[in-house]
Amino acid sequence: MKLLLLADPSPLLVEEYLRRGECFIAEVDTVIVGVYVLLPTRPETVELVNIAVHEGQHGKGIGKQLTNHAIETARLQGYKTIEVGTGNSSIGQLALYQKCGFRITGIDRDFFIRHYTEDIYENGIQCVDMIRLSQDL
């Protein structure tokens, strides 16, 4: 849960999508260093709703490995599309998803204002809008 809350600060939202989705972990020497959750959203579509890497493991390619694993898992499970959303202030995540083949499909304006009670800041930027990306499998 600590890792999941790094990527999404709302325990209520995390618990809600954990009940409906499938959680995967990455381990190094039996220590969990990364996690992601796949959530079926529509027929033939799944969303990567949370992906997080332990702060001490950043810069080692684990996020890219997890993202690619999520894409391959979705493909093997028969999905036709995988989607992901991230904040407008999540510069590194936006780059990662595009490097892994995702394309921007839309913006959910004021998403983080509507769904979170406290302001979120990353990279000196307020997280206000959800950037939606997807990839055909």
Could you explain how this protein is built, in words?
By secondary structure, the protein is of the alpha+beta class. Helix content is about 35%, strand content about 40%. The strands form 2 sheets. A 6-stranded mixed beta sheet has the order 1-2-3-4-8-5, sandwiched between helices. A two-stranded antiparallel sheet has the order 6-7. It is globular and about 35 Å long. The mean pLDDT is about 95.
Report the count of strand segments: 8
Summarize the main sheet: 6 strands, mixed
- Weakly predicted, low-confidence segments: none
Radius of gyration: 14 Å
The overall average pLDDT, rounded, is 94
Q: How much of the sequence is in beta strands?
A: 35-45%
| Helix share, percent | 25-40%
Kindly summarize this structure in a few lines.
This protein is of the alpha+beta class and about 140 residues long. The protein is about 35% helix and about 40% strand.
Descriptive labels:
single chain; 137 residues; alpha+beta; 8 strands; 38% strand; globular
Task: Walk me through the topology.
Elements: H1 2-7, H2 11-20, E1 22-28, E2 31-42, E3 45-53, H3 62-76, E4 81-87, H4 91-99, E5 103-108, H5 111-115, E6 121-122, E7 125-126, E8 130-136
